[in-house]
Predict the structure.
Amino acid sequence: MSAHSDSEIWAAVAAETERQERQLELIASENHTSQEVMDAVGTTLTNKYAEGYPGRRYYGGCEHVDVVENIARGRAKELFNAKYANVQPHSGTQANMGALMALCQPGDRVLAMSLDHGGHLSHGHEKNFSGVFYDFHSYGVERESERLDMDQVASRAKEVQPRVILAGASAYSRSIDFAAFAEIARENDALLMVDMAHIAGLVAGGQHDNPVPHADVVTMTTHKTLRGPRGGLIVTRDLEVLKRVNSSVFPGGQGGPLMHVIAAKAVALREALAPQFADYARAVVRNAQALAGSLSERGLRIVSGGTDNHLCLVDVSPSGLSGAQAEDALHRVDLTCNKNLIPYDERPPMEASGVRLGTAAITTRGLDEDDMNTLAGWIAETLGSPEDESMQQRIRGEVAEMARAHPIYG
Ligand SMILES: *Cc1c(COP(=O)(O)O)cnc(C)c1O
């Protein structure tokens, strides 16, 4: 690498690399990409304007980036068994903008999972484009089981008569029945959009049912369980939907694509097509189940009683803490996570009653089920005595030792 002159920025980058190596990352939406993915992001492709799509660009000199984008599309289609792919969305939210603009008109009704029960802000938050331009209505999880109840979704669909039903979540630990969603959409003359941002890597690795055969359009992020660069992706099996998506992504919601990021998406998609990625996805779920199991053995309450995917939601209110206080306490022992509302939470979002814990990143660095048991012990101790500084110092040392034994980038 060339010598860098911007010492302020490179010092912060070095500190961030050191932080990732030293702490254990439990934020469920994060992961550690491969060096090859990061190398692709740092290439000359960042210099290139390529508005349009391969073969139909508004700029000259696109012959090489066309190769990159076509490869990325081909790999996305193969990985998710889709007929068509758009690899240009800059993020998951931009992918959702592209999909919603393709499926409906401003003012149309959309039925999505309640943000308070695990939905994403791009599923109708009043300040997000989605809530500003569309008429969002919500379904939630059932109070006792804390799981989606498809009868309730069906009755909400009947009441609301939405143009689009949106399935997918940011903080839901159970499998989602996409076939049942498709059935409800059909019965109510609605289109089905699935946002699999969190679970795309699990779908790729065969650990969650693939929504592509059931949905009119499927959006995702590439940087969560899929372990690629930050970005979005849209796949569909319907040519008419693809045409509308292509036009709503560019020129609808974006200008020039980030070709360096698309190259990195292609690299990540190739990694996800390799047989080892299925082993990774399996290990992610096993670790999440081990972590949730060990935490509940230690008296913590897991929302819905467990997990089928890469994350669990821990209700910390029985320990007398808010989610914000729990997040802070865990941060002090170098375990990074985020506070999260639990279903029917009585606290406001900035306090919340839960924390969301994910295993995608720690599985990438090689932690196994025994490590999950150790981790659960640290979490339970920390939340049990959030003011005990000497205990926190000891745990921080033990966390550092485990992290050192599992370097991310060596
Ligand atoms: C993370 C997430 C997104 C958006 O991702 P960004 O890249 O941050 O815009 C969209 N939908 C769901 C369900 C998510 O979890």
Remarks:
- Residues 277-405 form a domain with the Aspartate Aminotransferase, domain 1 fold (CATH 3.90.1150.10).
- The mean pLDDT is 97.
- The chain is about 45% helix and 15% strand.
- The pocket of pyridoxal-5'-phosphate is lined by residues 29, 91-93, 96, 120, 122, 168-170, 195, 197-198, 221 (CB under 6 Å).
